[in-house]
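> tool_call: predict_assembly(chains=two)
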Amino acid sequence: MLVFPQLVTGASALYPVKKTSVQRTAMNVMADGSVWIFGDPDGAAKAWELHATGMTAAEWNAIEALYQATSGMWQTFTFLDPTGNLLAQSENLGAGAWTNGPLIQLTSGVADPLGTTRATRITNTGEAAASVAQVLSVPGTFEYCISAWARAAGTSNVTLTAFTTGANLAKTFALSGAWSRIVLAGNLGQSTSQVTFGAQLDSGATVDVFGMQVEAQLAPSDYKQTNAKGGVYSKTRFGSDNFSVTAQGIDVYDAVIQIVDTEG
Amino acid sequence: MASFPQLKTGVVAQYPADRRRNLPTQVIRFLDGSEQRFAGYGAPLRSWTIHYERLDESELAAVESFFEEQGGRAGMFSFTDPFDGTVYPSCSFANDRLEVEFAGPQDGRMQLVIRENRS
């Protein structure tokens, strides 16, 4: 699995990051000034410009090794959007992107901590613990952070989990009636290509959850709502065959790296 | 119909904000220096240039997601004129390209142009 590497600090990118969303449309302007525009969803593309300053030699070598493995712009690699939420359908926990326990019941339209009604009430009606979870095609060697807002009417707990073949992370949170943002961060340290992230409820537990988010970094950032597409881009390419680095000093390297996604 | 998303503060624009009116007057000039002018069509169409600075990532993501849901110029949505509060029910993005800059923590920046459609 070819993946754009993380920095050794566990950060996925440095500021500033520029991100461009490009859509393709065909436009006809009529004589009366009205306009007919037709969209072409298959023509959409995304691009990132990463300003990586102060990299160590190890960090730069990892990026350069990926560049050589993909032969520059030729072949694809997986890129985890450093500005995005890796989960898809972050507010539609019943969507196909989620692999929930069979006896999990979901109620949408619950009041959330942002003052809207986009939270979901999760009830585990089964006799054993069950999860609301999503499997992501991401490497098991990265630092990850899963976060969500949660509350419970009674004394229910919720456990955030991240697991892959050979390792798992879990942390249980005792909830109150007030919203709190709960966070699990860590590195599974396994050379795998899929990680499952989720929220696990004990038998009979009822918990309100909002804003589930997974990021490839050490701590959570602002919550980003996602729809059908999360922040995992499995067919990105380098945006240029020209690849240069500036050595500012011993073990201090600067580079601007362009990455494009044209295949969704 | 969808509505252009508001920032967390409830507004849709920050300073500086630009509003334009566009009328397509046709001008034909003759060799003797005279000219004829024709009004292309009736009411002028408005457009707004929105500059955003110091947005947090949630606000940036909301606008970016909205842009993608609209398919760039292809979609139509209602937009509230930040100058006078008038709601224009049929507006579109003027470009198929949206650039977002994450300059630092809580310092997201973007610029976009919204135009009124002739209904």
